[in-house]
Amino acid sequence: MNVVVVGLGKIGLPLAVQYARSGATVTGLDVAPAVVESVNAAIEPFPGEHGLAEGLREVVPAGRLRATTDPAEAIPTADVVVVVVPLFVGQDGTPDFGWMDAASRSIGAHLRPGTLVAYETTLPVGTTRTRWAPMLEQASGLVEGRDFHVVFSPERVLTGRVFADLRRYPKLIGALSDAGCDRARVFYETVLQFDARDDLPRPNGVWDLGTAEAAEMAKLAETTYRDVNIALANEFAVFAGQNGIDVAKVIEACNSQPYSHIHQPGIAVGGHCIPVYPQLYLWNDPDATVVRAARRRNAAMPDHAVDLLERLHGDLAGQRVVVLGAAYRGGVKETAFSGVFGTVAALQARGASVTVTDPMFLDSELEHLGFAAYQHGDAVDAAIVQADHAEYRTMRDTALPGVRTVVDGRRVLDTSRWDCMVIAIGAPAGD
Q: Greatest CA separation found in the chain?
């Protein structure tokens, strides 16, 4: 089986390695020459994906994976084309299909009869049927469902643990024809292996949802659920903190009952998924008031954390405040929609002198992001924990000379190691 993976990013490249390890001959197609060169040298082009470096060293020298920037070289020989190209969302929630449009036209221009095209990028409902299939038909002169097949199969993995997630979660598919469904099922059952799970209503594996629209909605729904749930937890946290209640104890108590699954509150919801996909859902369903309100609540949490710091510490004008963590979550070197941006902006709006530190980023990388890098040993007046890096769990107040007030936006600090005032999101003042 010849497989082409279009887009060798943090999801696409691990997928290419997974397919190659499962016996397919894989060509990775990417627009970035540096990425292609790195892959062909069996060197991971980005850090942090568990098992990727080892996987590249296994499949590239064996000739099972190579990369190219030339679609004319890759697409005509493909039995299956898997598309994992980014889709961006504007400030107003409007999807920007530019990169995916270009990729689809390029695929169509070189498409041959018999090929299965699988889109894995998260999409608004209806996009596969009404945008990609017609675009591929127009560019190729072929007919979907007769000459080639299209399926939507959302990626459901987290960066840093892609290979483990591929085994753990059912692979959802939704094709535009019965024949396309059969092709997609055979493909994914060939290149994926699944862990046995007793907690699922049916065996783990490839699950056909019947239509591309159902598969598209499933990905939007599961991610939007998380955003709404976190927003509810944040609402509880704000109220609890204002009324002398520790929200962590409340959530722990609630979740001891099997019908309650309240998530954890925090300073921000970041990453490529949770802040973005609810906006794609809203693009389809603009009257979804619950979803819209949840997105507003989560987007406002950095401001809430800074308000909390100001209430405890006093006027922030001229105060030296360090933000701990630029990454959107602990252990991941990625700043997509990270709360660091809103936190720094809110501090600067109050006149604070703000620096940022993160164990995963060099000072030069932080400065490239527009931040002043904190220098170890410099005196500070206050701090805000923005990312739950493991390094912060054992951190002491001596690491921040002079610090008087800390807002722990992730409940990651061991307060016994800190002599100053430390307050967590959703904790009563004085804890």
A: 71
